[in-house]
């Protein structure tokens, strides 16, 4: 017999991403629409362990749909990685009579949620700017982060042109070059360096020299942080080519800002879908954006093999920047 769901909890975990607030708002308001009590858990699993739980209302999520970051805050929790910490978290959920938990975050956050499945329904909403979670075409925050990079590179190109310099722009992506690739091809970067594909500094120098010979007096190189040190690569390129180089590391700038329309819409749809999954008495599920539709998938899909890096798009970027 299906269990009657009365109370659900929601938390954000891991790195913040634009659109998390839009997803949170959707979970709260759709849950209340269906007669549920919704509890917000502050500071991720760390807050859950310490009982930082409060009931949400329709008004508590007013005006957050286009606000960056996460109003619930987020934190890393070493204690949650221990059996003792997991039991404390579970005890808090039982204490507040929470029947189901929605976790907005990445695959690490999802793994944490799966340690709480004793009597608790679990639904994950993929939120990370790296777009590196298998099982979904897009994660919340990726589109906004990419557009943030494009805006920054547009400004950098103005000064690169004025001073006739080569600018190296480092973007986030320790293990995944999706931001670098998408932003690089969108803004016409001369070179894109990603962790997935080896590169040759001599070939990059040759490209810079060919451009200079045909009258090009500036270049933009976008490097994903996992591909190597922007400072070391910049010094090597300066030494080998003789061209003046400057380094810009965008860092956490990419995590902030209002979500794009795409991220806000996907986040709202995922938040709504998460509540529907709970009401259907399903557990260990995740929301996913596939073929421009938000669907439900097994949570294990987030731990599968990541889709192969888009080599075709990467090759096109190189062909367009000859």
Description of the structure:
By secondary structure, the chain is of the alpha/beta class. It is 39% helix and 18% strand. The chain has ten helices and eleven strands. The strands form two sheets. A seven-stranded mixed β-sheet has the order 3-2-1-4-5-10-11, sandwiched between helices. It has a four-stranded parallel β-sheet with strand order 7-8-6-9, sandwiched between helices. The longest helix has 22 residues, at 142-163. It is elongated and about 70 Å long. The mean pLDDT is 94.
Provide the succession of SSEs: EHEHEHEHEHEHEHEHEHEEH
| Secondary-structure-derived class | alpha/beta
Kindly provide the radius of gyration, computed on alpha-carbon positions and rounded to a whole number of angstroms.
22 Å
Secondary structure: helix percent:
25-40%
> Count of DSSP E strands?
11
Number of helices: 10
Proportion of β residues?
A: 15-25%
N→C terminal distance: 64 Å
Can you summarize the main beta sheet?
A: 7 strands, mixed
Residue windows where pLDDT falls under 50 for at least 5 positions = none
Global geometry: elongated
